Amino acid sequence: MKGLYKVLFLIAALYALSPDSNVNCSYANYTKGEKRNHKYLPTSLEQLRAEGVQTIAEWKEKQWKDFMTKVKEEFNGFNKVIESQKKKWIDGKDNEFQQFIKYIENKWGHSDEELYNDILSTEAEESLTWGEDEWSEWMNTKGKLLIKLDLDKWIESNEEFLKESIRKDWEEWNKLKLREWNSVGWKNVEDKYWKYWHVYKKPEEPLYEIKMDKMDKWTERCKNEEIEWGKWLGSIEKVYINADWDKWVKWKNEKNTSFTKWVDSFATKWINNKQWNVWLEERNNASAQ
């Protein structure tokens, strides 16, 4: 009789571990408390066929495909929110640009010793003896370049903020979607079981070879999902996340053009007003204090 029991147990176990079985005993053996998660798996061939598949393995692959379809649809909604935020952000840039110009006017209209030395750099000492020609030459060459460099830094900081904000929202969103997939009842139990069994498996246990084969298939399926997920993320990032935003590119080009004209006008005014005299006076006053 004992031999018969062993045969019956082996037959039942083989059925439970097969991809076409209604109940996978591997899950039931993990913890009693997680048996309730089996309700997420089809329990009959009729349920499988209703979804257009014949086996549990096919059903699991279909669940992943359905999940990816859902995520792609949800991304459209996420992208609309991002586009709305970007529009609001760029709509405020014109006013910020005017504030930046006022900052430049104030910076180049007055100077203490520290600012003077910072702007003139290695020519700070020599410039103390310059006349009008030297100051005019310096402003029309190095001075203009320094002012434009301030604009470049300002634009760069704004661009970094924009890209970092978008990337942060994107990473939070796609990680949330992946957590949704990994928390699905049947998958959560399956993943826990095979990770546990991989660590504590024993070659002498019943059905060891069959379980190894099942685990290999689980590993392959997870790997394929990971590859597909990574490719999809890459395609989205290339087109939507990391790509240059045409409206921002246009805005930068327009402001660079207008700023270049403004700098020419500002430099002429600065020279005509002999603004360096104000610099020198304020520098000397600051040094004397």
TrEMBL record:
InterPro entries xrefs: Plasmodium-antigen_C
Signal peptide boundaries: 1-16
Span of domain Tryptophan/threonine-rich plasmodium antigen C-terminal: 63-279
Keywords: Signal
Superkingdom of source: Eukaryota
Name of this protein: Tryptophan-rich antigen
